[in-house]
Design brief:
Elements (H helix, E strand, L loop, with lengths): L13 E6 L6 E2 L6 E14 L4 H4 L14 E3 L7 E11 L3 E9 L24 E3 L7 E3 L9 E12 L4 E4 L2 H8 L2 H5 L22 E3 L3 E7 L5 E2 L22 H7 L15 E5 L7 E7 L16 E10 L8 E3 L14 H14 L7 E9 L3 H16 L3 H10 L1 E7 L3 E9 H7 L2 H8 L2
Length: about 450
Amino acid sequence: MLAEALPLESRLAQDVVRVDTFTRGIVGPSIPMLGPVKDGGRIVTGTAPGCWGPMITPKFQGGHEVTQPVAVEGARVGDAIALKLRRVEVTSLATASGVMQTIDGRYVGDPFVAKVCPKCGAPSPATHLEGIGQQAVRCDACGAEVSAFRVANGYVIVFDQENAVAVTVTKEIAERIARDPASFARLPAASEQHSILAFAQADLVGLVSPMQPFLGNVGTTPSRDLPDSHNCGDFGSFLIGAPHKYGMSRDELDRHKTDGHMDANSVRAGAVVICPVKVPGGGVYVGDMHAQQGNGEIAVHTTDVAGEAELEVEVVKGLGIDGPILLQRLEDLPPLARPLTAELRGKAHALAERYGRVPLEVNAPITFIGSGATINEATTNGLQRAAAVTGLPYNEILNRATIAGSIEIARLPGVARVTFLCPMPVLERMGIAPLVRAQYGL
Protein backbone atom coordinates (compact mmCIF):
# COMPACT_ATOMS: atom_id res chain seq x y z
CA MET A 1 0.00 0.00 0.00
CA LEU A 2 1.18 3.54 -0.73
CA ALA A 3 1.83 5.79 2.23
CA GLU A 4 -0.83 8.39 3.05
CA ALA A 5 0.35 11.88 2.16
CA LEU A 6 -0.72 15.43 3.02
CA PRO A 7 -0.48 18.01 0.23
CA LEU A 8 3.17 18.70 -0.53
CA GLU A 9 2.88 22.43 0.07
CA SER A 10 1.78 21.82 3.68
CA ARG A 11 4.76 19.61 4.57
CA LEU A 12 8.15 20.63 5.94
CA ALA A 13 11.21 19.53 3.99
CA GLN A 14 13.24 16.82 5.69
CA ASP A 15 16.99 16.16 5.79
CA VAL A 16 16.43 12.43 5.25
CA VAL A 17 13.41 10.64 3.75
CA ARG A 18 13.16 6.88 4.23
CA VAL A 19 11.09 4.99 1.62
CA ASP A 20 9.71 1.49 2.24
CA THR A 21 6.62 1.55 0.00
CA PHE A 22 6.20 0.62 -3.66
CA THR A 23 3.93 1.49 -6.58
CA ARG A 24 2.89 -1.93 -7.98
CA GLY A 25 4.52 -1.21 -11.32
CA ILE A 26 3.30 2.30 -12.19
CA VAL A 27 5.14 5.65 -12.24
CA GLY A 28 3.47 8.98 -12.95
CA PRO A 29 1.57 11.96 -11.55
CA SER A 30 -1.19 9.84 -9.96
CA ILE A 31 1.27 8.27 -7.51
CA PRO A 32 1.44 10.35 -4.29
CA MET A 33 4.88 11.65 -3.36
CA LEU A 34 6.64 11.38 -0.04
CA GLY A 35 8.81 14.16 1.37
CA PRO A 36 9.76 16.70 0.34
CA VAL A 37 13.41 16.07 1.01
CA LYS A 38 15.61 19.14 1.35
CA ASP A 39 17.79 20.23 -1.54
CA GLY A 40 21.05 18.64 -0.41
CA GLY A 41 19.25 16.02 1.67
CA ARG A 42 19.22 12.25 1.36
CA ILE A 43 16.78 9.56 0.28
CA VAL A 44 17.26 6.12 1.83
CA THR A 45 15.33 3.24 0.28
CA GLY A 46 14.85 -0.46 0.61
CA THR A 47 14.36 -1.77 -2.92
CA ALA A 48 12.41 -4.79 -4.19
CA PRO A 49 13.66 -6.98 -7.05
CA GLY A 50 12.60 -5.90 -10.53
CA CYS A 51 11.69 -7.82 -13.67
CA TRP A 52 11.01 -11.49 -12.98
CA GLY A 53 9.14 -11.14 -9.66
CA PRO A 54 6.72 -8.46 -10.95
CA MET A 55 6.51 -10.27 -14.32
CA ILE A 56 5.07 -13.42 -12.69
CA THR A 57 2.77 -11.38 -10.40
CA PRO A 58 -0.24 -10.68 -12.67
CA LYS A 59 -1.75 -7.84 -10.62
CA PHE A 60 1.33 -5.74 -11.43
CA GLN A 61 0.90 -3.47 -14.47
CA GLY A 62 4.61 -2.86 -14.96
CA GLY A 63 7.71 -4.99 -15.06
CA HIS A 64 9.30 -3.60 -11.90
CA GLU A 65 8.36 -2.74 -8.32
CA VAL A 66 9.91 0.69 -7.80
CA THR A 67 9.74 2.83 -4.68
CA GLN A 68 7.13 5.47 -4.00
CA PRO A 69 8.49 8.78 -5.37
CA VAL A 70 9.97 11.50 -3.19
CA ALA A 71 9.53 15.21 -3.91
CA VAL A 72 12.63 17.41 -3.74
CA GLU A 73 12.35 20.88 -2.21
CA GLY A 74 12.53 23.61 -4.84
CA ALA A 75 12.43 21.31 -7.88
CA ARG A 76 10.30 22.88 -10.61
CA VAL A 77 9.40 21.68 -14.09
CA GLY A 78 12.35 22.57 -16.33
CA ASP A 79 14.92 22.04 -13.59
CA ALA A 80 17.00 18.90 -13.09
CA ILE A 81 17.86 16.86 -10.02
CA ALA A 82 21.33 15.40 -9.48
CA LEU A 83 21.20 12.05 -7.69
CA LYS A 84 24.53 11.26 -6.04
CA LEU A 85 24.54 7.51 -5.44
CA ARG A 86 26.18 7.11 -2.05
CA ARG A 87 25.26 3.48 -1.39
CA VAL A 88 23.92 0.58 -3.50
CA GLU A 89 23.98 -2.68 -1.53
CA VAL A 90 22.48 -6.11 -2.19
CA THR A 91 20.45 -7.68 0.64
CA SER A 92 19.11 -10.76 -1.19
CA LEU A 93 20.81 -14.07 -0.44
CA ALA A 94 19.81 -15.45 -3.84
CA THR A 95 17.87 -14.67 -6.99
CA ALA A 96 16.92 -16.33 -10.27
CA SER A 97 16.84 -15.13 -13.85
CA GLY A 98 17.09 -16.29 -17.43
CA VAL A 99 15.83 -15.88 -20.97
CA MET A 100 12.09 -15.23 -21.11
CA GLN A 101 9.31 -16.68 -23.23
CA THR A 102 5.76 -15.33 -23.27
CA ILE A 103 2.57 -17.41 -23.32
CA ASP A 104 -0.15 -16.36 -25.76
CA GLY A 105 -3.66 -15.99 -24.36
CA ARG A 106 -2.45 -14.71 -21.00
CA TYR A 107 -2.11 -11.01 -21.82
CA VAL A 108 -3.60 -8.24 -23.94
CA GLY A 109 -1.00 -6.55 -26.12
CA ASP A 110 1.83 -6.55 -23.58
CA PRO A 111 2.62 -9.33 -21.07
CA PHE A 112 4.41 -6.88 -18.75
CA VAL A 113 1.37 -4.62 -18.47
CA ALA A 114 -1.98 -6.28 -19.19
CA LYS A 115 -2.13 -9.87 -17.96
CA VAL A 116 -5.35 -11.92 -17.93
CA CYS A 117 -6.32 -15.27 -16.47
CA PRO A 118 -6.64 -17.77 -19.37
CA LYS A 119 -9.51 -19.59 -17.65
CA CYS A 120 -11.79 -17.02 -15.96
CA GLY A 121 -10.64 -14.00 -17.99
CA ALA A 122 -9.94 -11.82 -14.94
CA PRO A 123 -7.71 -8.85 -15.87
CA SER A 124 -4.59 -8.39 -13.71
CA PRO A 125 -5.83 -11.18 -11.43
CA ALA A 126 -4.83 -11.65 -7.80
CA THR A 127 -2.71 -14.78 -7.50
CA HIS A 128 -0.85 -17.04 -5.09
CA LEU A 129 1.92 -19.62 -5.26
CA GLU A 130 1.14 -23.35 -5.09
CA GLY A 131 4.25 -25.46 -4.74
CA ILE A 132 7.36 -24.79 -6.83
CA GLY A 133 8.22 -24.75 -10.52
CA GLN A 134 7.02 -22.79 -13.53
CA GLN A 135 3.35 -23.71 -12.99
CA ALA A 136 3.29 -22.40 -9.40
CA VAL A 137 1.46 -19.07 -10.01
CA ARG A 138 -2.30 -19.65 -9.61
CA CYS A 139 -5.37 -17.42 -10.01
CA ASP A 140 -7.11 -16.72 -6.67
CA ALA A 141 -10.53 -16.77 -8.34
CA CYS A 142 -10.42 -20.01 -10.35
CA GLY A 143 -7.15 -21.75 -9.51
CA ALA A 144 -5.82 -21.78 -13.07
CA GLU A 145 -2.09 -21.56 -13.74
CA VAL A 146 -1.73 -18.02 -14.93
CA SER A 147 1.85 -16.72 -15.40
CA ALA A 148 2.33 -15.00 -18.77
CA PHE A 149 6.04 -15.86 -18.74
CA ARG A 150 8.28 -18.92 -18.84
CA VAL A 151 12.04 -19.19 -18.29
CA ALA A 152 13.58 -20.76 -21.38
CA ASN A 153 17.11 -21.09 -19.99
CA GLY A 154 17.46 -20.03 -16.41
CA TYR A 155 19.56 -20.16 -13.28
CA VAL A 156 19.46 -19.66 -9.53
CA ILE A 157 22.40 -17.70 -8.16
CA VAL A 158 23.55 -17.21 -4.55
CA PHE A 159 25.49 -14.21 -3.24
CA ASP A 160 28.33 -13.42 -0.89
CA GLN A 161 27.96 -9.67 -0.55
CA GLU A 162 30.98 -9.32 1.74
CA ASN A 163 33.31 -10.90 -0.81
CA ALA A 164 31.40 -9.61 -3.87
CA VAL A 165 31.03 -12.99 -5.55
CA ALA A 166 28.10 -15.10 -6.77
CA VAL A 167 27.68 -18.73 -7.91
CA THR A 168 24.89 -20.45 -9.86
CA VAL A 169 23.60 -23.60 -8.10
CA THR A 170 22.28 -27.07 -8.87
CA LYS A 171 18.64 -28.06 -9.37
CA GLU A 172 18.58 -29.70 -5.93
CA ILE A 173 19.73 -26.50 -4.22
CA ALA A 174 17.41 -24.38 -6.38
CA GLU A 175 14.42 -26.47 -5.28
CA ARG A 176 15.44 -26.20 -1.63
CA ILE A 177 15.61 -22.41 -1.97
CA ALA A 178 12.28 -22.37 -3.86
CA ARG A 179 10.44 -23.76 -0.83
CA ASP A 180 11.18 -20.53 1.08
CA PRO A 181 11.64 -18.01 -1.76
CA ALA A 182 10.70 -14.78 0.05
CA SER A 183 13.26 -15.51 2.76
CA PHE A 184 16.15 -16.04 0.34
CA ALA A 185 15.04 -13.09 -1.80
CA ARG A 186 14.83 -10.90 1.33
CA LEU A 187 11.72 -9.24 -0.07
CA PRO A 188 10.89 -5.96 1.74
CA ALA A 189 7.87 -6.09 4.04
CA ALA A 190 5.71 -3.96 1.72
CA SER A 191 6.64 -5.85 -1.46
CA GLU A 192 3.69 -7.58 -3.19
CA GLN A 193 5.55 -9.65 -5.79
CA HIS A 194 5.98 -13.41 -6.04
CA SER A 195 9.66 -14.34 -5.86
CA ILE A 196 11.05 -15.81 -9.08
CA LEU A 197 13.02 -18.20 -6.87
CA ALA A 198 9.81 -20.27 -6.73
CA PHE A 199 10.42 -21.37 -10.34
CA ALA A 200 13.63 -23.24 -9.37
CA GLN A 201 15.00 -23.29 -12.92
CA ALA A 202 18.66 -24.42 -12.91
CA ASP A 203 20.04 -24.83 -16.43
CA LEU A 204 23.35 -23.08 -15.68
CA VAL A 205 25.36 -24.64 -12.82
CA GLY A 206 28.65 -23.66 -11.18
CA LEU A 207 29.20 -20.38 -13.02
CA VAL A 208 31.09 -17.83 -10.89
CA SER A 209 30.39 -14.12 -11.41
CA PRO A 210 31.78 -11.13 -9.49
CA MET A 211 29.18 -8.80 -8.00
CA GLN A 212 28.98 -5.16 -9.11
CA PRO A 213 25.56 -3.91 -7.96
CA PHE A 214 23.84 -1.02 -9.70
CA LEU A 215 20.38 0.50 -10.12
CA GLY A 216 18.59 -0.46 -13.33
CA ASN A 217 15.69 1.97 -12.87
CA VAL A 218 16.31 5.25 -11.06
CA GLY A 219 15.21 8.75 -11.83
CA THR A 220 12.30 11.14 -11.77
CA THR A 221 8.57 10.80 -12.33
CA PRO A 222 7.27 11.01 -15.91
CA SER A 223 4.53 13.54 -16.64
CA ARG A 224 1.99 10.82 -17.50
CA ASP A 225 1.25 7.51 -15.79
CA LEU A 226 3.02 4.61 -17.45
CA PRO A 227 4.45 1.21 -16.48
CA ASP A 228 7.73 1.65 -14.61
CA SER A 229 9.63 -0.76 -16.88
CA HIS A 230 8.44 1.22 -19.92
CA ASN A 231 9.87 4.58 -18.81
CA CYS A 232 12.39 4.45 -21.66
CA GLY A 233 12.47 4.46 -25.43
CA ASP A 234 12.78 0.74 -26.17
CA PHE A 235 10.33 -0.94 -23.77
CA GLY A 236 8.28 2.25 -24.00
CA SER A 237 7.78 1.68 -27.72
CA PHE A 238 5.45 -1.21 -26.76
CA LEU A 239 3.02 1.45 -25.48
CA ILE A 240 2.63 3.08 -28.90
CA GLY A 241 -0.87 2.22 -30.08
CA ALA A 242 -1.20 -0.45 -27.36
CA PRO A 243 -4.71 -1.89 -26.71
CA HIS A 244 -4.64 -1.20 -22.95
CA LYS A 245 -5.12 1.94 -20.87
CA TYR A 246 -1.46 2.92 -20.98
CA GLY A 247 -1.36 3.05 -24.77
CA MET A 248 -0.10 6.33 -26.26
CA SER A 249 1.39 7.88 -29.37
CA ARG A 250 5.09 8.21 -30.14
CA ASP A 251 4.90 11.95 -29.48
CA GLU A 252 3.25 11.37 -26.10
CA LEU A 253 5.86 8.81 -25.08
CA ASP A 254 8.75 11.10 -26.05
CA ARG A 255 7.15 14.05 -24.26
CA HIS A 256 6.30 12.32 -20.98
CA LYS A 257 8.98 9.69 -20.26
CA THR A 258 12.09 10.48 -18.22
CA ASP A 259 14.20 7.44 -19.22
CA GLY A 260 14.67 6.19 -15.66
CA HIS A 261 14.86 2.58 -16.89
CA MET A 262 18.43 2.67 -18.21
CA ASP A 263 19.96 -0.66 -17.13
CA ALA A 264 23.36 1.03 -17.43
CA ASN A 265 25.78 -0.94 -15.28
CA SER A 266 27.77 2.19 -14.39
CA VAL A 267 24.79 3.64 -12.47
CA ARG A 268 26.35 2.38 -9.26
CA ALA A 269 27.65 3.72 -5.97
CA GLY A 270 29.90 6.70 -6.66
CA ALA A 271 28.12 7.78 -9.84
CA VAL A 272 25.91 10.85 -10.29
CA VAL A 273 22.71 10.75 -12.36
CA ILE A 274 21.25 14.12 -13.41
CA CYS A 275 17.55 13.66 -14.17
CA PRO A 276 14.90 15.88 -15.83
CA VAL A 277 12.08 17.37 -13.78
CA LYS A 278 8.78 16.93 -15.63
CA VAL A 279 6.39 17.19 -12.65
CA PRO A 280 6.53 19.60 -9.66
CA GLY A 281 8.88 18.21 -7.04
CA GLY A 282 10.55 15.84 -9.49
CA GLY A 283 9.41 12.66 -7.77
CA VAL A 284 12.59 10.61 -7.32
CA TYR A 285 12.07 6.84 -7.40
CA VAL A 286 14.43 3.85 -7.19
CA GLY A 287 14.24 0.21 -8.23
CA ASP A 288 15.41 -2.74 -10.31
CA MET A 289 18.73 -3.23 -8.49
CA HIS A 290 20.98 -5.76 -10.21
CA ALA A 291 23.83 -7.69 -8.63
CA GLN A 292 25.82 -7.79 -11.88
CA GLN A 293 25.44 -7.24 -15.60
CA GLY A 294 27.65 -6.85 -18.64
CA ASN A 295 27.03 -4.13 -21.20
CA GLY A 296 23.85 -4.79 -23.14
CA GLU A 297 21.94 -7.05 -20.74
CA ILE A 298 21.88 -9.39 -23.71
CA ALA A 299 19.57 -11.96 -22.07
CA VAL A 300 17.07 -9.09 -21.53
CA HIS A 301 17.08 -9.95 -17.80
CA THR A 302 19.82 -10.23 -15.19
CA THR A 303 20.22 -10.79 -11.45
CA ASP A 304 17.38 -8.77 -9.90
CA VAL A 305 17.83 -8.32 -6.16
CA ALA A 306 16.45 -6.63 -3.09
CA GLY A 307 18.78 -4.04 -1.66
CA GLU A 308 19.44 -0.77 0.10
CA ALA A 309 20.19 2.47 -1.71
CA GLU A 310 21.12 5.91 -0.41
CA LEU A 311 21.03 8.98 -2.63
CA GLU A 312 21.96 12.61 -2.00
CA VAL A 313 19.89 15.06 -4.05
CA GLU A 314 20.78 18.45 -5.52
CA VAL A 315 18.53 20.66 -7.63
CA VAL A 316 20.09 22.10 -10.81
CA LYS A 317 17.97 25.10 -11.72
CA GLY A 318 16.87 25.65 -15.30
CA LEU A 319 18.91 22.86 -16.90
CA GLY A 320 15.93 21.75 -19.00
CA ILE A 321 17.13 18.31 -20.06
CA ASP A 322 14.91 15.69 -21.72
CA GLY A 323 16.69 12.61 -20.38
CA PRO A 324 19.43 11.60 -17.94
CA ILE A 325 23.01 12.81 -17.87
CA LEU A 326 25.44 10.45 -16.16
CA LEU A 327 28.69 11.34 -14.41
CA GLN A 328 30.30 7.92 -14.24
CA ARG A 329 32.93 6.76 -11.81
CA LEU A 330 36.41 7.42 -13.17
CA GLU A 331 37.15 3.72 -13.67
CA ASP A 332 33.86 3.22 -15.56
CA LEU A 333 34.64 5.90 -18.15
CA PRO A 334 35.80 4.75 -21.59
CA PRO A 335 39.59 5.27 -21.83
CA LEU A 336 39.48 8.10 -24.37
CA ALA A 337 37.04 10.12 -22.25
CA ARG A 338 39.01 10.14 -19.01
CA PRO A 339 40.31 13.47 -17.69
CA LEU A 340 43.88 14.23 -18.72
CA THR A 341 46.53 13.47 -16.14
CA ALA A 342 49.10 16.15 -15.42
CA GLU A 343 51.71 14.01 -17.17
CA LEU A 344 49.67 13.58 -20.33
CA ARG A 345 48.72 17.24 -20.41
CA GLY A 346 52.40 18.14 -20.18
CA LYS A 347 53.24 15.88 -23.12
CA ALA A 348 50.33 17.29 -25.13
CA HIS A 349 51.52 20.83 -24.38
CA ALA A 350 55.02 19.96 -25.62
CA LEU A 351 53.57 18.49 -28.83
CA ALA A 352 51.45 21.59 -29.41
CA GLU A 353 54.44 23.86 -28.86
CA ARG A 354 56.44 21.87 -31.40
CA TYR A 355 53.98 22.92 -34.13
CA GLY A 356 53.20 26.40 -32.87
CA ARG A 357 51.11 27.80 -30.07
CA VAL A 358 47.94 25.70 -29.76
CA PRO A 359 45.85 26.47 -26.66
CA LEU A 360 44.86 23.19 -24.98
CA GLU A 361 41.17 22.84 -24.23
CA VAL A 362 40.10 22.53 -20.59
CA ASN A 363 37.39 19.88 -20.49
CA ALA A 364 35.78 17.07 -18.51
CA PRO A 365 33.77 13.89 -19.19
CA ILE A 366 30.00 13.82 -19.57
CA THR A 367 27.65 10.99 -20.58
CA PHE A 368 24.23 11.46 -22.17
CA ILE A 369 21.75 8.59 -22.04
CA GLY A 370 19.81 7.99 -25.23
CA SER A 371 16.94 5.59 -25.78
CA GLY A 372 14.88 4.33 -28.70
CA ALA A 373 13.31 1.26 -30.26
CA THR A 374 16.74 0.13 -31.55
CA ILE A 375 20.32 0.75 -30.45
CA ASN A 376 20.87 2.94 -33.53
CA GLU A 377 17.88 5.09 -32.60
CA ALA A 378 19.10 5.25 -29.00
CA THR A 379 22.54 6.40 -30.11
CA THR A 380 21.08 9.12 -32.32
CA ASN A 381 18.81 10.21 -29.47
CA GLY A 382 21.78 10.50 -27.10
CA LEU A 383 23.79 12.49 -29.64
CA GLN A 384 20.85 14.82 -30.30
CA ARG A 385 20.31 15.36 -26.58
CA ALA A 386 23.99 16.18 -26.18
CA ALA A 387 23.90 18.75 -28.97
CA ALA A 388 20.66 20.31 -27.69
CA VAL A 389 21.86 20.69 -24.09
CA THR A 390 25.48 21.69 -24.70
CA GLY A 391 24.77 23.95 -27.68
CA LEU A 392 27.69 22.31 -29.53
CA PRO A 393 27.09 21.47 -33.21
CA TYR A 394 25.81 17.93 -33.78
CA ASN A 395 28.74 17.11 -36.06
CA GLU A 396 31.16 18.29 -33.40
CA ILE A 397 29.52 15.90 -30.92
CA LEU A 398 30.13 13.11 -33.45
CA ASN A 399 33.82 14.01 -33.61
CA ARG A 400 34.20 14.31 -29.85
CA ALA A 401 32.50 10.97 -29.20
CA THR A 402 34.81 9.39 -31.80
CA ILE A 403 38.26 10.63 -30.73
CA ALA A 404 37.65 11.76 -27.13
CA GLY A 405 34.81 9.54 -26.01
CA SER A 406 32.79 6.46 -26.88
CA ILE A 407 29.37 5.04 -27.67
CA GLU A 408 28.46 2.14 -25.37
CA ILE A 409 25.43 -0.11 -25.13
CA ALA A 410 23.60 0.08 -21.82
CA ARG A 411 20.76 -2.27 -22.78
CA LEU A 412 19.65 -3.95 -25.97
CA PRO A 413 17.55 -3.25 -27.91
CA GLY A 414 17.72 0.48 -27.25
CA VAL A 415 19.58 2.32 -24.46
CA ALA A 416 22.98 3.87 -25.23
CA ARG A 417 25.63 5.89 -23.39
CA VAL A 418 27.13 8.77 -25.37
CA THR A 419 30.32 9.90 -23.61
CA PHE A 420 32.78 12.62 -24.60
CA LEU A 421 35.10 15.28 -23.21
CA CYS A 422 33.11 18.52 -23.04
CA PRO A 423 34.63 22.02 -22.82
CA MET A 424 34.50 23.32 -19.27
CA PRO A 425 32.89 26.67 -20.29
CA VAL A 426 29.96 24.65 -21.68
CA LEU A 427 29.60 22.75 -18.41
CA GLU A 428 29.74 26.09 -16.57
CA ARG A 429 26.94 27.48 -18.74
CA MET A 430 24.85 24.37 -18.11
CA GLY A 431 25.27 24.84 -14.36
CA ILE A 432 26.82 21.43 -13.69
CA ALA A 433 30.53 22.33 -13.60
CA PRO A 434 30.67 22.11 -9.76
CA LEU A 435 29.20 18.60 -9.92
CA VAL A 436 31.69 17.57 -12.60
CA ARG A 437 34.69 19.02 -10.73
CA ALA A 438 33.66 17.28 -7.54
CA GLN A 439 33.13 13.98 -9.36
CA TYR A 440 36.54 13.94 -11.03
CA GLY A 441 38.63 15.95 -8.56
CA LEU A 442 39.32 18.72 -11.06
